[in-house]
Amino acid sequence: MASDWECVPRSYEVTKNYLQSFHTFDHPLKVSTVTMVDSKGTRVSSSSISLLNDPLLLTLDGTDPLSQFARQEQELIDPLTQMASEYETFQKSKTKKREKDVSLADDSFNWNAKRLSILNKFTTSEKLSISTSFLSVSNAGTGTDAIKVHTVVSDKLKFRLEQLDDFEDTSIRHLMDLTQQDYIQRIEQLNQELVQSWHNDQRVKALKIAIQCSKMLSDTSVLSFYPSQFVLITDILDIFGKLVYERLKQKAYSGPESSRQLNTESARDTCQNWFFKVASIRELLPRLYVEIAILKCYEFLNECSYENILQRLTLMIRGIGDPLIAVYVRCYLVRIGATVTSIKEYMYNNFKDFLTIYQSNQMIFAGSIRSELNRQRVDMTKYLSLYGPAVNFILQAVAYKNNFYTEEIVKQVKTIKNNGPILMAILQALTSEFIAARASEIVHLLSQSHTEGISKSQLFRALGLSMSVCVPLCEERSGFLKEAFLTINTFTDPSEYITCVETWSQFIASNFPISETNRLLHEIITRLSSTKICEKHFQQLHNILDKILENQKNIELLLIQENFLPFLDLFHKDAVKSEACKRILIVYKRNSHEYTTDPVVISALMYIGKILNDSLTALTVADEKRQISQLISNFIRKVYFGRDLECQLSFYVEARGTFSNLDTVYGTLVQNVNKLAMEAYSIVHSQRTRKTQAFAKACIAFSFITIPSISCICQQMDLYMLSGQVALVNQCMGQADACFEAALNLIAELPTALEIDGKVKPMDSYVVSYLSNMLATLVVVPDSPEEGVLYLLRLLLDVIQKFSFAANSLGPVTVYLNVLDMLYVQSLEDFPYHITGVISNDELYGRDPKFLNEVNNLCVYVVEKILQQLKQLGAEQQYKMQTILSLELMLRIIRYANLYKEQTFQLALNLWLLARKHESLLDVKHFPRIIKAIENIYNLTKDTNTKHAQSLHQFMEHINHK
């Protein structure tokens, strides 16, 4: 055993072994070259040797980055200039692509997006019906009544004529009581039937399907579904028109060039036949829809004037009695007409015709329509909204890339009574730039509008949405806002008011001083002071808060407004208020200044953080707690009072009492207080006074009191360690000892394992790392006169036995080996590092024999513990770990202990022999490296400690002989 252990301090200097260096003139990534000289010695050529599979060469065309940059410099093109040039080229290509995409979408004015919004908005729960001869309840869409195919041409033509003559109402089936989903499925079946019939060369059947689909648009029995019905039916008509056009195009332009004229004439004749068939349709509505669907086919006729055709169709639509049906036919005409010509006059005429019908007040507001609305239980507001998609599209088409007619439209609207729907269409369809340029005129029109079914709140809400995209000129904004709110403030219904103000909040927050936002919040608080009213509008209030936060550049300026926190109190429900508070802290984290010093801002943020802290319960999920903790911690880190350290500490004390439910926040507070103590130390440094010493002790006391409130033991231990180190730097020895002692006592409470991501991981590695860090700190910690020699180290050795390491763990032995390192340092005359102002044990004891005796006794105790572990490893046949640890202990004995002592020498030799028994389990180079290390120790000590060198030389002879 090592009962005669005696630490032997070394006096040699530590040297560094540098790697061998050499000069080089070539870059390691430079491409190798081979120089070839001809036999005459006059011609020289070189070729590159390609390095296969080199990612740099493959990526950069055989040139490394440094060489590439050098070449660019030679060509007077620096990397930034090249990047700018590449970016410009990319932007040009992107712009060309975008312009190409826009030009392709010009014809339909982005109809696809509109059709989806229509289908989502206009739905119904009422029963629908379909009248068609091509669907049955049992086998709809299966083609059971398909036309038999005739091979003889004459019979085929005769049969088609008979089909047209046989188109009677008696063959039509009526499918009733369909749900909306069933209706859509039936329409899709008709779509599939049309395409299938066309590909089966059954053109007449396809035409009949298109006609019957068009007739469905005369059905307004379910008004609320009509816009969606229009979209579904016109999708089928679009497919029909495309099939006819592609067929004619194929007939006209296919075949050899010599027969092109004959093909063109044949296509023209076929085209005329199609239009003759359409003209033979008796009912106006299907005749209009089908002709509009194949409108593009007019190009195959010699004399084709789209302007005249579109004007003719516009006049024909006047024959439709129902204004709702008529306006959607006009919408379809405008949409299809935009794909064949850029003429705007027919579009404007369609809009004027609609205005004429609307202005007469004899159709839209007629008694018959009111009766139908009463029967279907549809109010005027809902009915007028049905016109929106069609009128909006027509207006948008008229104004698209051309404002020639828009001024005239606005003038006409001024003279129309009940012009609410038209004003709504103008606000939704025309560009925000057009509205902003005429903001004062528009707001005057809206304030004077009185229309049944369209409230002023709807109009001003639409105007607010437009203002969020484009705003008036700076000199006009104040007057415009004042005039608008003269009307908005007259709304007595809280729902109308808050819905309208929701859209204006962004305009106000982004374009006016903070006082206007504060005034808006005051008005909202006044209007929604009742709890029941607020509960109905939490979503609108949340949207207003979001828009104000996103558009307010100075978040601190917003927080100090007198109406901001009262506005937050409108969120009466805890869950809703918590979300609002969380949103405020998120924006504050992103947009605030680096530090906050304003006490009003800090007070507001403390109030917001307290709401979040109090909202946490035992049922709150961990992710929610983590997010809230991070937001509050960010706020705490941004509070900074400069050199007023006492005020800073007072804030941390207040925060500790406010955020009592958040461990992470407590951890942040401890970290910040420790940082505060170190900041005070850096200010006074060597000029410490009683006041600064008391402040440092107050900081450490704050940490010491706060840490036990944290539930995570690992976090407690880490913070105790950090606080003890801070106390040590500030020469607060008693506080440092208390922190280190508390940290060590917590080791016994640590769980043996933690579950992370569903996997159980032992705590051994954490404990070993923590205790190693603690040992490095304890090197400079002076002994307490009340506790005795190396009190904290003895406590550490005790707690090692209280922690349950995993089976076959090297944790205890690793710690014991590190303890030997620490004890050896304690035996030195001068420690390798110190803390300024702290008298460590080297100065305190001055290598007193009694102290060294205590150190040696502890070394004996530690070695015995290691030997016990080695014996246990051998009993468990863990020979590899036993061999490694034997060599580690042997090296420490050689470095630290006096080999002149017989028992120590024999222990080192026995450890070597034990390791050699199982040397085959280790790497073949392991033992030669150990021998080399021993030789280095001998070479360093042979000139300074002859007696120890002789013992070491004798030891080397024994192991080499073995």
UniProtKB/TrEMBL annotation:
Coiled-coil annotated spans: none
Keywords, ordered alphabetically: Endosome, Protein transport, Transport
Superkingdom of the source species: Eukaryota
GO cellular component: endosome
Membrane-crossing segments per the record: none
Principal location listed in the UniProt entry: other
Subcellular location as annotated: Endosome
GO process annotations (BP): endocytic recycling; protein transport
Record family assignment: Belongs to the VPS35L family.
Record protein name field: VPS35 endosomal protein sorting factor-like isoform X2
Protein species of origin: Glossina fuscipes
